[in-house]
Amino acid sequence: MNPLSPPLPAHVQMAQAPVSRQSFNEVMMPTYAPAQFVPVRGQGVQVWDQNGKDYIDFGGGVAVLAIGHNHPAAMAALKAQSEKIWHVSNWMTNEPALRLARRLIAHTFAERVFLCNSGTEANEGALKLARKYASTHFGEHKFEIVAAKNSFHGRTLFAVNVGGSPKYVKGFGPALPGIHHIDYNSVEQLKASINDNTCAVILEPMQGEGGMLPGTREFLQAARTLCDQHHALLIFDEIQSGMGRTGALFNYMQKGVTPDIVTSAKGLGGGFPIGAFFSTQKITEVLQPGTHGSTFGGNPLACAVAEAVFDIINNSEVLAGVLAKEQHFRRRLAAINQELACFVDVRGEGLWLGAELNPALASRGAEAVAKAHEHGLIMLTAGNGNILRFAPSLLITEAEIDLGLDRLHATLKAML
Ligand code: PLP
Question: How confident is the model at residue 394 (pLDDT cuts 50, 70, 90)?
Answer without folding.
Answer: very high
